[in-house]
Amino acid sequence: MDGATIRLGGERSRAAAVEIIQRAPMGWVCRIGAPPRTLDQSSKFWAMCTSLSKSDITWSGDRQTKDGWHDLLLSGWHVVKGNAPRMLIGLEGERVSLLGHTRDLTIDEMSDLIDYCTAWTAVRGISVE
User: Fold this and answer.
1) Where on the phi/psi map is residue 93: left (φ > 0), alpha (ψ -120 to 50), or beta?
2) For every one of its 129 residues, what pLDDT tens digit does the chain have, with 9 covering 90 and above?
3) How far is it, in rounded angstroms, from Cα 5 to Cα 25?
């Protein structure tokens, strides 16, 4: 058995999941959770980050890359949600922010992050895609 991922969409997929679990070897792990963010959501978020990186907007005195905006927006969203990222001193004395990854977000969480980005830019009069 190689493992499986099943999206529960009805009684047939639910029955298939039960069958797979019943055949799984002892010690294997079964994880049930909310569906992960969609490719469309990911694309929309990265489009917003790219749009910000191509604008004249600066943060902390510098223009940011799309990756920089990704980290800034994700960090801000975490703070607003009450899940501030951990800050610590890195291996070479640098400051490190331990953020999660957008790939680990659920559909609802990613929707909320996109709403945060939309609101953050709108309040500042910034137009993004």
Assistant:
1) left
2) 788 888 899 999 999 999 999 999 999 999 898 999 999 999 999 999 999 999 999 999 999 999 999 999 999 999 999 998 899 999 999 999 898 899 999 999 999 999 999 999 999 988 886
3) 16
In CATH, 39-123 is 3.20.20.80: no
Show me where the domains of the chain are located: 1-32, 39-123
The pTM of the full predicted model, rounded to 2 decimals, is 0.80
For residues 48 and 121, the answer to whether their CB atoms sit within 8 Å is: yes
